């Protein structure tokens, strides 16, 4: 149920499962979406039977390519059944055409109980069982092949699939020539005794 929707809609993928065919509306309806876009449709399913809390109600559902919902009952349907919505308690009072009323209770939801680490430690000390679990994504992303990597694809021989030995000799040897007599740089350790520091200074 959506009091912000002017009409009632049914997802086109969900409507394909029904054993009925839509009717053509005498006009094309341009539906604005919350994301700022718009969709045009001219197909409607008349008098669709909907079971709510064991009560059968009917609605005219306009076909629309929805992704997150199967059916949206908008203001046209809510006003037809003179609905009174209690948002805090998630209760909707509906009045049937014969004058009888019934309540539809929405999903109250549930919350996962959370305890502190100290309390959990106490429970474990008393002999309660504890389980350590973590989520593992079994879907592995397909790695790129050498042909899909720019620049690398131009030199496939440099990146063989298996490295069985040292790289082969190239036409140009790369070396760093040092000046004769060059010695490693004398670098003082991070910590030095005061007496040794005085000798070096």
From TrEMBL:
CDD domains recorded for this chain?
retropepsin_like
Q: Which Gene3D superfamilies match?
A: Acid Proteases
Top-level taxon of the source organism:
Eukaryota
Q: Which InterPro entries match?
A: Peptidase_aspartic_dom_sf (IPR021109), RTL1-rel (IPR032567)
The protein, known as? RVP_2 domain-containing protein
Xref: Pfam families: RVP_2 (PF08284)
Organism, as annotated: Cephalotus follicularis (Albany pitcher plant)
